[in-house]
Amino acid sequence: MLIFTDLDGSLLDHDGYSYGGARPALDRIRRLSVPLVFVTSKTRAEVERLQGEMGLREPFITENGGGIFFPAEYRNFRIPGGVERGGKTLIRLGRHYPEIRRFVEERKGRFGIRGAGDLSVEDLVEITGLTPEEARLAKQREFTEPFLLADGAQLALLGEEARAAGLEIV
User: At what angle do helices 97-111 and 155-164 cross, to 10 degrees?
Assistant: First the structure.
């Protein structure tokens, strides 16, 4: 048995992003030794912090499927094609972050696009309501770039350019 879960609004409540309401289920999952795999738009740094708080050591999928991370020596699995990164084995499914940033940088002037990499921690706190520590972790991108667009009417054109570059806007 294996359980996959989203985080925001699923395992974590909508208001305070707390997992307190899920604690009885989490305790049962732990007692039964069922792997609980997070599938999220959050970064590896955000997930590692959350797993640490929850006392979990399980695989997880970050940044909308950009990467799958397995803890080192996880259940004696051998992960073919994975690369070691920060004590975990990574299976990369997304593009490298510098490629994504290059795409954003090249289109800033025409589209008025501002990516997470352009925003300060303070900007992210103001825009998202995250704490400064949460915003710092959210900025540690590896595969994706959340962004703001000055004119939403240009989203379709930006999407066409993204597809032509082998990228997708979600």
Answer: 140
The pairing of strands 67-71 and 83-85 is unpaired
- Catalytic residue IDs: 6
Cα–Cα distance for residue pair 47/110, rounded to 1 Å: 34
How far is C-alpha 31 from the chain's CA centre? 27
CB contact at 8 A, 11 and 40: no
| pLDDT tens, residue by residue, 34-85 | 999 999 999 999 999 999 999 999 999 999 999 999 998 898 888 888 888 8
**Widest Cα–Cα separation across the chain:** 54
The answer to whether residue 16 scores a pLDDT higher than 80 is: no
What pTM was estimated for this model as a whole? Answer: 0.92
Residue 55 structure tokens = 């006392």
Contacts of 95 (CB under 8 A, 6+ apart): 66, 143, 166, 167
